Amino acid sequence: MSDETIPPSDNPYRSPGTAGSSTVAVQIVSSVSDKDVFMWAMFCHLASLAGFVAPFGNLVGPLLVWLIKRETHPFIDQHGKESLNFQISVTIFEFSFVGLMLLLFLATESLALVVLLIGSTWLMALGTVIYSVFAAVTANKGQPFRYPFTIRFLK
Question: In the chain, N or C terminus with fewer CB closer than 10 Å?
């Protein structure tokens, strides 16, 4: 999303005093509070990596950060919702995929499907990590981010 698509008065991410200019909040980080906002938005995405430590940590981590910091700034709220939407979508996709693959395996008893299941699950996990880290870096720069293939449960 470019800055030109949002009128200056309606852009909640614009730094104070930049109304009417084409400079976005990312390019002018004048106070520690802006950096803190970007940092917490980044944590909304990085908290999903807790899924590698605890079951459903990919959902609980971003949920906790979002619930604690969502009222601090609209930028944190937006990134928290985006991270949660993506993690909920990925969880649904993975459970659906694993269920489908298990049904196919039970029907065909093919070892090749087990290998395909394991490989595909690892590829989905790798893609999730890559997108989460990319979103975290983008948030830390003060830019909005939209995950692809995401069902928007939280608006």
Answer: C
Q: Record the tokens describing residue 152, joined without a space.
A: 């928007």
Q: How confident is the model at residue 4 (pLDDT cuts 50, 70, 90)?
A: very low
Residue 10 neighbours by CB under 8 Å, 6+ apart: none
- Per-residue model confidence (pLDDT) at position 115: 85
**Tokens representing 52?**
């590698």
> In angstroms, what CA-CA distances link 102 with 22, 109, 119?
53, 10, 14
- Please list the helix, strand and coil fractions of the chain in percent, rounded to the nearest 5, in that order: 70, 0, 30
Residue ranges of domains in the chain = 1-30, 31-140
Specify the residue for token string 């709220």: 77
Beta-carbon contacts of 9 under 8 Å, excluding residues fewer than 6 positions away, are 19
* Tokens (6 digits) for 79: 């990134």
- Token pair of 147, please? 């995950």
Cα separation, 73 vs 76, whole angstroms: 5
| pLDDT tens digits along 6-53 | 444 454 554 454 454 444 444 444 444 789 999 999 999 999 999 989
